[in-house]
């Protein structure tokens, strides 16, 4: 069932709905939300169908730049995608840390 992130209040809502996501699972969810094939989705950010499949199955680790391209291609909120990306990297390294992504506070002049 596709998730419409625009209807969510926060990433906590998605986590409660789906549980903690691996980055690859998130990519598959984003693609399914767009109702695209792996080949169609891959074209949006310049990779092959096979690469999309490998990302979704967590057989490859993508660069931070690729994670940003994927988020932009899917039009998902970048902070949420970055948290999932870094959480996945931390989990693969078997570290016990959590990630929080925030926009920098703006200082008034």
Question: Can you characterise this structure?
Answer:
- The chain is mainly alpha-helical and 109 residues long.
- The chain has a single domain (10-92), classed as 434 Repressor (Amino-terminal Domain) (Orthogonal Bundle).
- 56% of the residues lie in helices and 0% in strands.
- It is built from six helices and no strands.
- It has helices spanning 11-18, 23-33, 38-45, 49-56, 64-74, 78-92.
- Helix 2 (23-33) packs across helix 4 (49-56) and helix 5 (64-74) packs antiparallel against helix 6.
- The relative contact order is 0.14.
- The model is unreliable at 1-9 (pLDDT under 50).
Throw out a few tags for this protein.
109 residues; 434 Repressor (Amino-terminal Domain); 56% helix; globular; disordered N terminus; 6 helices
Please sum up the structure shown:
This protein is mainly alpha-helical and 109 residues long. It has helices at 11-18, 23-33, 38-45, 49-56, 64-74, 78-92. The protein has a single domain (10-92), classed as 434 Repressor (Amino-terminal Domain).
Which residues sit in consecutive blocks of at least 5 with pLDDT less than 50? 1-9
Q: Helix segment count?
A: 6
Shape: globular
Average pLDDT figure: 85
- Beta-strand content bin: under 5%
The Rg value, from CA coordinates, equals 14 Å
Kindly report the CATH topology.
Answer: 434 Repressor (Amino-terminal Domain)
The chain-level structural class is mainly alpha
Q: Largest beta sheet, briefly?
A: none
CATH class: Mainly Alpha
């Amino acid at each position: 069932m596709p998730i419409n992130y625009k209807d969510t209040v926060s990433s906590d809502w998605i986590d409660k709905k789906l549980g903690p996501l691996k980055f690859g699972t998130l990519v598959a969810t984003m693609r399914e939300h767009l109702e695209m094939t792996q080949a169609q989705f891959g074209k949006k950010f310049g990779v092959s169908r096979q690469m999309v499949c490998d990302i979704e199955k967590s057989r490859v680790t993508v660069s931070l730049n690729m994670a940003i391209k994927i988020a932009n291609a899917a039009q998902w909120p970048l902070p949420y995608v970055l948290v999932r990306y870094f959480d996945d990297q931390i989990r693969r390294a078997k570290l016990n840390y959590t990630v929080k992504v925030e926009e920098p506070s703006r200082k008034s002049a």
